[in-house]
Structures are given as structure tokens and as C-alpha cells.
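Field log, afternoon session.

UNIT: design team B
ACTIVITY: writing a sequence onto a fixed backbone
BACKBONE:
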């Protein structure tokens, strides 16, 4: 209930171009009252969509959730566009656009995919205990998706039209880094003054104004196998070389609000009595700025070019999950306005 009122107020704030600190605005009791009145309907819709399996790649489930949401948004006056995913094996993305009579252009982004496998709902359906709701995707992110639907309903019922466009993208592959939506997001951002993401914030209710980006670097070492007892001198130990390579990231911090660099996976060898021919590791890197990830990349690549053990080969691969949401003056001003 409260989050829906906050979201409605946030959309209101975002429709005014953010160029300076706002004047103090009195809380709108009408928005809060409307959110309270719609609470039961909101929970009912949340229960309905949570009780449909829609893990990333579940095309049938994703289509069911999108169809329910599209019908509701269309009834509210939105123009609906179903945009095919940019890779195979994913349901279409839903784009709902509301057109007003003002100037502000707001983009909302949510996702209907979850991290859960098909069949999860049958074992763990939606339920409420006390003041908490439980179920697959109830918070991340179907709760946010439903919240925005009802915030938009509140604004429609209030007759609010002082905006040029409010575009609502409900995408279907966020949990895998949005591989089916990246070009679409880029296109929609070009026609938006601000973007509001529906990902759940930390408790208590807060607005997130910065978030680290995520990169994973993979180190693959190729050595030479040999019997550890009969001819160890013939081997080239890939595990030993991997440990040498890991020293390249040892100086980087492992905890804190800034960049963090942590070893998360490591494997080597095939049998207890064989010098490892292959070894690999994964290093998860979280950054406040894109340049920080480049620092790690440069350190790893320089080390890969200079292996310690002769006749070993080192390869570094990189996977970017999502870029950082960096701090900036415009975002801070929007947060103050909200």
C-alpha cells in the first residue's frame, strides 16, 4: 500500500524536468487514500501473477503474465506494443505507453521473469503471513511490477495528464542480465527525461540512487598433464600457474562501498595423482564506475601475458552482467524531489 503511494508520487515528481533542487512539496493525501482503497485489488493481482511460473526462459508462463498485465494497462488507456526478445527462447517484452498533455517523459522499467524453475508455484504458492507476502518472485520483481500498475491507475483516476509520455517497459530476461532487451532499453531511453526502475530497494522503503555494476572475469590456464609420481618433471602445473595469476587481483579491495574484487569459483585437475593440465577461476567484480572494471581487466591481461610456469597458456574472458548506476547530480535532484 505505502509503496504504491510512493511510486505514484515518484512518477508525479519525475514528470517535471529535474534541473535543480525542488521546492518543498506537501504530501498528497489523495494519493495515499487512493492507495489504501486499492490495497485489496493490488494484493489480488499480485497473487495472480505470482502464482504463474515465469522464470527466465519460461516462454509460456511469461506470455501468460504479460497478457494479464497488457489487458489491464490497455483498459487504462495505454497503447500496447509486444516487442520480440532479442535472443531466442524468451517471451515478448511488453511496452505500454500513456500519452498526456504536458512535457515530461518518464520511463518505467520492470521485469516479470524470476529466478525460479517451472513447477515452483505448485510447491510454494502465494501466501500472506502477518504483514508479509511470500511466493516465487513476490518481491523481485512482480511486487514492483504490480506496484507500478496501480500507481498508474491512481494517477489516471486522479485525472493527472501533465506529462508528455509515461512509458512502461515490462521485460522478460532481467535475471540473466537482460540479453533479450538491451537494444529496446537503449531505444526507449532516448525518448525519456528520467527512468525509474522497479527493482525492490533495501528495507525500509527507500529509493536507490546508485548501484554497483557487475562483471565476472574468467581465468583459464592450459598446462601439461603428467604422472605426479612417475614423471612430475614432465608436467606443467596449471593449478600452480592459476594461483600465480590470482595474485594480479590481490591488491584490489574485497569489501566496502567502492569496488570489490572476489574469487568465487576455482577448479583444477582430473585425478589425485596427475599434474593438472587445466585450471580455471571466476572473479566477480563490483564497481561504482566503469573505469574500475577496466583496471581489473588490465591487471589480469598483463599477468596473462607473463605466466610464471613455462609452457603454460593463460586466457582471460569477461562477462558483463550490468553496468553501474553511478551517482550524479540529476539523480540526486530527482531523489530529493521524490
Amino acid at each position: 500500500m505505502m509503496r504504491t503511494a510512493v511510486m505514484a508520487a515518484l512518477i508525479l515528481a519525475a514528470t517535471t524536468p529535474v534541473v535543480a533542487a525542488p521546492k518543498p512539496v506537501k504530501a498528497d493525501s489523495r494519493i495515499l487514500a487512493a492507495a489504501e482503497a486499492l490495497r485489496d485489488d493490488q494484493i489480488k493481482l499480485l497473487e495472480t501473477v505470482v502464482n504463474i511460473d515465469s522464470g527466465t526462459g519460461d516462454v509460456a508462463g511469461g506470455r501468460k503474465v504479460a497478457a494479464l498485465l497488457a489487458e489491464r494497462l490497455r483498459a487504462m488507456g495505454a497503447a500496447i506494443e509486444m516487442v520480440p526478445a532479442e535472443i531466442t527462447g524468451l517471451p515478448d517484452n511488453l511496452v505500454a505507453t500513456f500519452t498526456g498533455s504536458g512535457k515530461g517523459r518518464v520511463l518505467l522499467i520492470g521485469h516479470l521473469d524470476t529466478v525460479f524453475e517451472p513447477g515452483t508455484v505448485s510447491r510454494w504458492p502465494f501466501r500472506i503471513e502477518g504483514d508479509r507476502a511470500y511466493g516465487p518472485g513476490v518481491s523481485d520483481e512482480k511486487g514492483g511490477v504490480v506496484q507500478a500498475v496501480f500507481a498508474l491507475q491512481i494517477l489516471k483516476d486522479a485525472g493527472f495528464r501533465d506529462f508528455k509520455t509515461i512509458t512502461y517497459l515490462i521485460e522478460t530476461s532481467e535475471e540473466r542480465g537482460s540479453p533479450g532487451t538491451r537494444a529496446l532499453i537503449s531505444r526507449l531511453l532516448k525518448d525519456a527525461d528520467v527512468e525509474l526502475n522497479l527493482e525492490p530497494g533495501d528495507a525500509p522503503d527507500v529509493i536507490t540512487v546508485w548501484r554497483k555494476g557487475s562483471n565476472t572475469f574468467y581465468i583459464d590456464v592450459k598446462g601439461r598433464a603428467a604422472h605426479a609420481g612417475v614423471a612430475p618433471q614432465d608436467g606443467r602445473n596449471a593449478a600452480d600457474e592459476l594461483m600465480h595469476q590470482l595474485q594480479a587481483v590481490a591488491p584490489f579491495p574485497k569489501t566496502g562501498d567502492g569496488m570489490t574484487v572476489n574469487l568465487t569459483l576455482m577448479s583444477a585437475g582430473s585425478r589425485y595423482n596427475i599434474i593438472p593440465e587445466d585450471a580455471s577461476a571466476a572473479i566477480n567484480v563490483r564497481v561504482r564506475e566503469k573505469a574500475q572494471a577496466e583496471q581489473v581487466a588490465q591487471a589480469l591481461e598483463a599477468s596473462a601475458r607473463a605466466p610464471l610456469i613455462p609452457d603454460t597458456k593463460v586466457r582471460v574472458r569477461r562477462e558483463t552482467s550490468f553496468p553501474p548506476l553511478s551517482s550524479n547530480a540529476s539523480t540526486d535532484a530527482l531523489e530529493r524531489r521524490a
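LOG NOTE: The radius of gyration is 25 Å.
NEXT ACTIVITY: expression trials, pending approval
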